[in-house]
Amino acid sequence: xxxxxxxxxxxxxxxxxxxxxxxxxxxxxxxxxxxxxxxxxxxxxxxxxxxxxxxxxxxxxxxxxxxxxxxxxxxxxxxxxxxxxxxxxxxxxxxxxxxxxxxxxxxxxxxxxxxxxxxxxxxxxxxxxxxxxxxxxxxxxxxxxxxxxxxxxxxxxxxxxxxxxxxxxxxxxxxxxxxxxxxxxxxxxxxxxxxxxxxxxxxxxxxxxxxxxxxxxxxxxxxxxxxxxxxxxxxxxxxxxxxxxxxxxxxxxxxxxxxxxxxxxxxxxxxxxxxxxxxxxxxxxxxxxxxxxxxxxxxxxxxxxxxxxxxxxxxxxxxxxxxxxxxxxxxxxxxxxxxxxxxxxxxxxxxxxxxxxxxxxxxxxxxxxxxxxxxxxxxxxxx
Length: 383
Description:
This protein is of the alpha/beta class. The chain is 39% helix and 13% strand. It has helices at 11-22, 30-43, 56-66, 83-90, 110-114, 136-146, 197-206, 216-222, 243-274, 303-315, 340-348, 360-377; strands at 50-53, 74-78, 95-99, 121-127, 150-153, 161-162, 165-166, 173-177, 190-194, 290-291, 297-300, 349-352. The strands form 3 sheets. Strands 1-9-8-5-4-2-3 form a 7-stranded mixed beta sheet, sandwiched between helices. Strand 2, helix 4 (83-90) and strand 3 (95-99) form a beta-alpha-beta unit. Helix 1 packs antiparallel against helix 9 and helix 9 crosses helix 12. The longest helix is centred in the C-terminal third of the chain and has 32 residues, at 243-274. The chain is globular and about 85 Å long. The two termini are 25 Å apart.
Protein backbone atom coordinates (compact mmCIF):
# COMPACT_ATOMS: atom_id res chain seq x y z
CA UNK A 1 0.00 0.00 0.00
CA UNK A 2 1.28 3.48 -0.89
CA UNK A 3 0.54 5.56 2.20
CA UNK A 4 -0.63 9.15 2.44
CA UNK A 5 1.67 9.84 5.40
CA UNK A 6 4.89 8.10 6.36
CA UNK A 7 7.75 9.17 8.64
CA UNK A 8 11.41 9.12 7.61
CA UNK A 9 13.46 7.87 10.57
CA UNK A 10 16.52 5.67 10.66
CA UNK A 11 19.97 5.04 12.05
CA UNK A 12 20.79 8.67 12.85
CA UNK A 13 17.65 9.09 14.97
CA UNK A 14 18.28 5.75 16.68
CA UNK A 15 21.85 6.80 17.50
CA UNK A 16 20.58 10.06 18.99
CA UNK A 17 18.23 8.15 21.28
CA UNK A 18 21.14 5.89 22.25
CA UNK A 19 23.15 8.92 23.35
CA UNK A 20 20.22 10.07 25.48
CA UNK A 21 20.21 6.61 27.08
CA UNK A 22 23.94 6.82 27.74
CA UNK A 23 23.51 10.14 29.50
CA UNK A 24 21.22 8.50 32.11
CA UNK A 25 18.94 11.54 31.84
CA UNK A 26 15.75 10.79 29.93
CA UNK A 27 13.40 13.55 31.10
CA UNK A 28 13.29 17.26 30.32
CA UNK A 29 16.97 18.17 30.17
CA UNK A 30 19.85 19.26 27.91
CA UNK A 31 18.58 17.61 24.72
CA UNK A 32 15.19 19.25 25.18
CA UNK A 33 16.71 22.67 25.72
CA UNK A 34 18.95 22.20 22.66
CA UNK A 35 15.93 21.23 20.57
CA UNK A 36 14.18 24.43 21.69
CA UNK A 37 17.31 26.39 20.77
CA UNK A 38 17.57 24.70 17.37
CA UNK A 39 13.90 25.28 16.65
CA UNK A 40 14.25 28.91 17.68
CA UNK A 41 17.05 29.33 15.14
CA UNK A 42 14.85 27.67 12.51
CA UNK A 43 12.02 30.12 13.23
CA UNK A 44 14.13 33.18 13.96
CA UNK A 45 12.82 33.64 17.52
CA UNK A 46 14.53 33.53 20.95
CA UNK A 47 14.64 30.02 22.46
CA UNK A 48 13.14 31.23 25.74
CA UNK A 49 9.88 31.95 23.86
CA UNK A 50 9.58 28.25 22.96
CA UNK A 51 8.64 25.19 24.96
CA UNK A 52 8.82 21.56 23.81
CA UNK A 53 5.74 19.66 24.97
CA UNK A 54 4.45 16.10 24.83
CA UNK A 55 1.94 16.94 22.07
CA UNK A 56 0.45 19.78 20.06
CA UNK A 57 -2.88 19.00 21.73
CA UNK A 58 -1.24 19.77 25.07
CA UNK A 59 -0.06 23.05 23.55
CA UNK A 60 -3.65 23.90 22.57
CA UNK A 61 -4.87 23.07 26.07
CA UNK A 62 -2.10 25.18 27.58
CA UNK A 63 -3.10 28.02 25.26
CA UNK A 64 -6.67 27.86 26.53
CA UNK A 65 -5.38 28.14 30.09
CA UNK A 66 -2.97 30.97 29.30
CA UNK A 67 -5.63 33.01 27.51
CA UNK A 68 -8.14 32.14 30.25
CA UNK A 69 -10.97 30.84 28.09
CA UNK A 70 -14.16 30.24 30.03
CA UNK A 71 -17.96 30.32 30.00
CA UNK A 72 -19.31 33.30 28.08
CA UNK A 73 -16.25 33.51 25.82
CA UNK A 74 -16.21 32.74 22.10
CA UNK A 75 -13.22 31.47 20.13
CA UNK A 76 -13.28 31.54 16.32
CA UNK A 77 -11.89 28.43 14.60
CA UNK A 78 -12.15 27.24 10.98
CA UNK A 79 -14.53 24.30 10.80
CA UNK A 80 -11.90 22.74 8.55
CA UNK A 81 -9.60 21.93 11.49
CA UNK A 82 -8.45 18.99 13.56
CA UNK A 83 -10.87 18.23 16.37
CA UNK A 84 -8.31 19.05 19.09
CA UNK A 85 -8.66 22.74 18.20
CA UNK A 86 -12.32 22.67 19.20
CA UNK A 87 -12.09 20.17 22.07
CA UNK A 88 -9.50 22.14 24.02
CA UNK A 89 -11.68 25.25 23.76
CA UNK A 90 -14.95 23.51 24.63
CA UNK A 91 -13.34 21.86 27.66
CA UNK A 92 -13.08 25.31 29.28
CA UNK A 93 -16.78 26.07 28.85
CA UNK A 94 -16.10 28.59 26.08
CA UNK A 95 -18.13 28.46 22.85
CA UNK A 96 -16.46 27.40 19.61
CA UNK A 97 -17.53 29.60 16.69
CA UNK A 98 -16.79 27.98 13.33
CA UNK A 99 -15.76 30.13 10.39
CA UNK A 100 -15.74 29.30 6.69
CA UNK A 101 -12.80 28.66 4.35
CA UNK A 102 -12.04 29.19 0.68
CA UNK A 103 -13.26 26.05 -1.13
CA UNK A 104 -10.01 25.68 -3.12
CA UNK A 105 -7.26 26.69 -0.67
CA UNK A 106 -9.21 25.39 2.38
CA UNK A 107 -7.82 28.33 4.37
CA UNK A 108 -9.95 31.13 5.89
CA UNK A 109 -9.70 34.70 4.64
CA UNK A 110 -9.65 37.76 6.88
CA UNK A 111 -13.24 38.36 5.78
CA UNK A 112 -14.24 34.86 6.91
CA UNK A 113 -12.77 35.61 10.34
CA UNK A 114 -14.27 39.10 10.57
CA UNK A 115 -17.76 37.74 9.87
CA UNK A 116 -17.59 35.70 13.10
CA UNK A 117 -16.23 38.32 15.51
CA UNK A 118 -18.45 39.60 18.31
CA UNK A 119 -17.86 41.49 21.56
CA UNK A 120 -17.52 38.05 23.21
CA UNK A 121 -14.66 36.90 20.97
CA UNK A 122 -11.77 35.95 23.26
CA UNK A 123 -9.37 34.67 20.57
CA UNK A 124 -9.01 33.46 16.99
CA UNK A 125 -7.29 30.22 16.03
CA UNK A 126 -6.34 29.55 12.40
CA UNK A 127 -4.82 26.57 10.59
CA UNK A 128 -2.36 26.66 7.67
CA UNK A 129 -4.10 24.00 5.58
CA UNK A 130 -1.71 21.51 4.02
CA UNK A 131 1.23 23.75 4.89
CA UNK A 132 0.00 26.66 2.73
CA UNK A 133 0.27 29.91 4.75
CA UNK A 134 -3.07 31.35 3.60
CA UNK A 135 -4.23 34.88 4.45
CA UNK A 136 -2.11 35.07 7.59
CA UNK A 137 -0.84 38.64 7.08
CA UNK A 138 -4.33 40.14 6.73
CA UNK A 139 -5.71 37.97 9.55
CA UNK A 140 -2.89 39.10 11.83
CA UNK A 141 -3.62 42.75 11.03
CA UNK A 142 -7.33 42.22 11.68
CA UNK A 143 -6.73 40.66 15.09
CA UNK A 144 -4.21 43.34 16.08
CA UNK A 145 -6.68 46.08 15.13
CA UNK A 146 -9.45 44.44 17.19
CA UNK A 147 -7.18 43.62 20.13
CA UNK A 148 -7.97 39.91 19.85
CA UNK A 149 -5.26 37.30 20.55
CA UNK A 150 -4.39 35.20 17.49
CA UNK A 151 -3.28 31.56 17.71
CA UNK A 152 -1.60 29.85 14.74
CA UNK A 153 -1.98 26.11 14.47
CA UNK A 154 1.14 25.54 12.38
CA UNK A 155 1.06 21.76 12.75
CA UNK A 156 1.11 21.41 8.95
CA UNK A 157 3.45 24.34 8.37
CA UNK A 158 6.78 23.58 10.03
CA UNK A 159 8.73 24.98 7.04
CA UNK A 160 6.18 27.49 5.70
CA UNK A 161 7.01 31.19 5.36
CA UNK A 162 5.60 34.44 4.05
CA UNK A 163 8.21 36.87 2.74
CA UNK A 164 10.81 35.00 4.77
CA UNK A 165 8.89 35.03 8.05
CA UNK A 166 8.06 31.66 9.59
CA UNK A 167 4.44 30.64 9.96
CA UNK A 168 3.60 30.29 13.63
CA UNK A 169 5.44 33.52 14.50
CA UNK A 170 2.86 35.98 13.14
CA UNK A 171 0.44 35.28 15.96
CA UNK A 172 0.57 35.80 19.70
CA UNK A 173 0.88 32.03 20.13
CA UNK A 174 2.12 29.48 17.58
CA UNK A 175 1.87 25.70 17.80
CA UNK A 176 3.61 22.87 15.89
CA UNK A 177 3.02 19.13 15.94
CA UNK A 178 5.64 16.37 15.74
CA UNK A 179 3.33 13.36 15.91
CA UNK A 180 3.94 10.21 13.91
CA UNK A 181 2.29 11.54 10.74
CA UNK A 182 3.97 14.93 10.59
CA UNK A 183 6.87 15.87 8.29
CA UNK A 184 9.30 15.83 11.17
CA UNK A 185 8.36 13.55 14.03
CA UNK A 186 9.34 12.82 17.60
CA UNK A 187 6.77 10.02 17.81
CA UNK A 188 4.56 12.34 19.80
CA UNK A 189 5.41 15.90 20.67
CA UNK A 190 4.71 19.55 20.03
CA UNK A 191 6.22 23.00 20.30
CA UNK A 192 4.60 26.22 21.49
CA UNK A 193 5.80 29.77 20.79
CA UNK A 194 4.68 32.72 22.92
CA UNK A 195 5.39 36.23 21.68
CA UNK A 196 4.93 37.82 25.13
CA UNK A 197 7.97 36.97 27.33
CA UNK A 198 5.88 37.01 30.51
CA UNK A 199 3.33 34.66 28.96
CA UNK A 200 6.22 32.41 27.94
CA UNK A 201 7.50 32.30 31.51
CA UNK A 202 4.03 31.44 32.77
CA UNK A 203 3.72 28.70 30.14
CA UNK A 204 6.94 27.13 31.42
CA UNK A 205 5.48 27.04 34.93
CA UNK A 206 2.06 25.72 33.94
CA UNK A 207 3.59 22.97 31.82
CA UNK A 208 5.28 21.53 34.90
CA UNK A 209 2.70 21.53 37.71
CA UNK A 210 2.89 25.30 38.22
CA UNK A 211 6.42 24.95 39.60
CA UNK A 212 9.13 27.53 39.11
CA UNK A 213 11.91 24.94 38.85
CA UNK A 214 12.09 21.61 37.02
CA UNK A 215 13.93 19.21 39.27
CA UNK A 216 16.69 19.46 41.85
CA UNK A 217 19.42 20.66 39.49
CA UNK A 218 17.36 23.65 38.37
CA UNK A 219 16.24 24.40 41.92
CA UNK A 220 19.84 24.24 43.17
CA UNK A 221 20.73 27.23 41.02
CA UNK A 222 18.18 29.34 42.94
CA UNK A 223 18.59 27.81 46.39
CA UNK A 224 21.90 25.96 46.81
CA UNK A 225 21.19 25.08 50.46
CA UNK A 226 17.63 23.70 50.19
CA UNK A 227 17.36 22.42 46.62
CA UNK A 228 14.50 20.10 47.52
CA UNK A 229 12.13 23.00 48.23
CA UNK A 230 9.43 23.73 45.65
CA UNK A 231 8.02 27.05 44.52
CA UNK A 232 4.49 26.52 43.17
CA UNK A 233 2.66 29.58 41.86
CA UNK A 234 -0.54 28.13 40.38
CA UNK A 235 -2.26 24.92 39.32
CA UNK A 236 -0.48 23.35 36.36
CA UNK A 237 -0.10 20.02 34.63
CA UNK A 238 2.74 17.86 33.36
CA UNK A 239 2.95 18.67 29.65
CA UNK A 240 6.68 18.88 29.04
CA UNK A 241 8.64 16.87 26.49
CA UNK A 242 11.72 14.76 27.24
CA UNK A 243 15.29 14.21 26.09
CA UNK A 244 14.57 10.95 24.24
CA UNK A 245 12.01 12.49 21.91
CA UNK A 246 13.88 15.79 21.70
CA UNK A 247 16.99 13.92 20.52
CA UNK A 248 14.94 12.51 17.64
CA UNK A 249 13.55 15.98 16.94
CA UNK A 250 17.00 17.55 16.64
CA UNK A 251 17.98 15.04 13.96
CA UNK A 252 14.67 15.43 12.16
CA UNK A 253 15.01 19.22 12.16
CA UNK A 254 18.41 18.97 10.47
CA UNK A 255 16.85 16.77 7.79
CA UNK A 256 13.81 19.03 7.30
CA UNK A 257 15.08 21.07 4.30
CA UNK A 258 15.71 17.86 2.36
CA UNK A 259 12.29 16.50 3.31
CA UNK A 260 10.55 19.62 2.07
CA UNK A 261 12.53 19.74 -1.16
CA UNK A 262 11.53 16.16 -1.95
CA UNK A 263 7.88 16.96 -1.22
CA UNK A 264 8.08 19.90 -3.60
CA UNK A 265 9.48 17.62 -6.28
CA UNK A 266 6.62 15.18 -5.77
CA UNK A 267 4.02 17.96 -5.86
CA UNK A 268 5.51 19.28 -9.10
CA UNK A 269 5.42 15.76 -10.57
CA UNK A 270 1.72 15.44 -9.70
CA UNK A 271 1.11 18.83 -11.31
CA UNK A 272 2.72 17.60 -14.54
CA UNK A 273 1.21 14.12 -14.60
CA UNK A 274 -2.33 15.20 -13.75
CA UNK A 275 -2.43 18.41 -15.79
CA UNK A 276 -5.42 18.71 -18.09
CA UNK A 277 -7.35 15.82 -16.57
CA UNK A 278 -11.03 16.67 -17.22
CA UNK A 279 -13.06 17.52 -14.15
CA UNK A 280 -10.04 17.60 -11.82
CA UNK A 281 -8.77 20.65 -9.97
CA UNK A 282 -5.25 20.38 -8.56
CA UNK A 283 -3.73 21.88 -5.40
CA UNK A 284 -3.32 25.65 -5.73
CA UNK A 285 0.23 26.98 -6.14
CA UNK A 286 1.41 29.19 -3.28
CA UNK A 287 1.17 32.94 -4.06
CA UNK A 288 4.29 35.03 -4.61
CA UNK A 289 6.28 35.34 -1.38
CA UNK A 290 4.67 32.23 0.15
CA UNK A 291 6.69 29.09 0.85
CA UNK A 292 4.66 25.96 1.60
CA UNK A 293 5.77 22.97 3.61
CA UNK A 294 3.68 20.82 1.20
CA UNK A 295 2.16 18.70 3.90
CA UNK A 296 -0.88 17.80 1.78
CA UNK A 297 -1.40 17.46 -1.95
CA UNK A 298 -5.10 17.60 -2.72
CA UNK A 299 -7.25 17.17 -5.78
CA UNK A 300 -10.87 18.18 -6.18
CA UNK A 301 -13.42 16.29 -8.27
CA UNK A 302 -17.17 16.02 -8.72
CA UNK A 303 -18.61 15.12 -5.29
CA UNK A 304 -20.67 12.37 -6.91
CA UNK A 305 -17.44 10.70 -8.06
CA UNK A 306 -15.03 11.40 -5.16
CA UNK A 307 -15.79 8.39 -2.95
CA UNK A 308 -15.81 5.95 -5.87
CA UNK A 309 -12.42 7.26 -7.00
CA UNK A 310 -11.04 6.78 -3.48
CA UNK A 311 -12.38 3.21 -3.34
CA UNK A 312 -10.83 2.33 -6.71
CA UNK A 313 -7.46 3.69 -5.58
CA UNK A 314 -7.62 1.72 -2.33
CA UNK A 315 -8.40 -1.48 -4.24
CA UNK A 316 -5.32 -0.81 -6.36
CA UNK A 317 -2.83 -0.17 -3.58
CA UNK A 318 -3.09 3.61 -3.19
CA UNK A 319 -4.35 4.94 0.11
CA UNK A 320 -6.05 8.35 0.01
CA UNK A 321 -7.99 10.29 2.61
CA UNK A 322 -9.74 13.53 3.39
CA UNK A 323 -8.72 15.86 6.19
CA UNK A 324 -10.29 17.46 8.06
CA UNK A 325 -13.96 16.48 8.35
CA UNK A 326 -15.84 19.75 9.03
CA UNK A 327 -16.29 20.17 12.76
CA UNK A 328 -19.62 21.95 12.40
CA UNK A 329 -20.98 18.66 10.99
CA UNK A 330 -19.66 16.17 13.56
CA UNK A 331 -22.19 15.04 16.22
CA UNK A 332 -20.47 16.79 19.12
CA UNK A 333 -20.40 20.19 17.42
CA UNK A 334 -23.26 19.79 14.95
CA UNK A 335 -24.65 23.23 14.21
CA UNK A 336 -26.76 25.09 11.70
CA UNK A 337 -23.82 27.30 10.66
CA UNK A 338 -23.90 28.13 6.97
CA UNK A 339 -20.36 27.48 5.70
CA UNK A 340 -20.64 26.91 1.94
CA UNK A 341 -16.89 26.94 1.23
CA UNK A 342 -16.26 24.32 3.89
CA UNK A 343 -19.13 22.12 2.75
CA UNK A 344 -17.98 22.30 -0.88
CA UNK A 345 -14.40 21.37 -0.01
CA UNK A 346 -15.52 18.52 2.23
CA UNK A 347 -17.52 17.00 -0.61
CA UNK A 348 -14.98 17.23 -3.44
CA UNK A 349 -11.49 17.06 -1.91
CA UNK A 350 -9.17 14.04 -1.76
CA UNK A 351 -5.59 13.89 -0.45
CA UNK A 352 -3.09 11.95 -2.54
CA UNK A 353 -0.01 10.31 -0.98
CA UNK A 354 2.67 12.88 -0.21
CA UNK A 355 5.71 12.07 1.89
CA UNK A 356 9.45 12.31 1.33
CA UNK A 357 9.97 8.53 1.20
CA UNK A 358 7.89 8.15 -1.98
CA UNK A 359 9.95 6.90 -4.94
CA UNK A 360 9.54 8.26 -8.45
CA UNK A 361 7.98 4.93 -9.43
CA UNK A 362 5.40 5.19 -6.64
CA UNK A 363 4.55 8.76 -7.60
CA UNK A 364 4.03 7.59 -11.17
CA UNK A 365 1.84 4.72 -9.95
CA UNK A 366 -0.35 7.09 -7.91
CA UNK A 367 -0.79 9.41 -10.88
CA UNK A 368 -1.54 6.55 -13.25
CA UNK A 369 -4.08 4.94 -10.93
CA UNK A 370 -5.73 8.27 -10.25
CA UNK A 371 -6.13 8.90 -13.98
CA UNK A 372 -7.62 5.44 -14.36
CA UNK A 373 -10.04 6.08 -11.50
CA UNK A 374 -11.21 9.38 -12.97
CA UNK A 375 -11.70 7.88 -16.42
CA UNK A 376 -13.61 4.87 -15.04
CA UNK A 377 -15.94 7.04 -12.98
CA UNK A 378 -16.50 9.79 -15.54
CA UNK A 379 -20.10 10.19 -16.74
CA UNK A 380 -20.73 7.86 -19.66
CA UNK A 381 -17.70 5.68 -18.96
CA UNK A 382 -18.10 1.98 -19.65
CA UNK A 383 -18.68 -0.13 -16.56
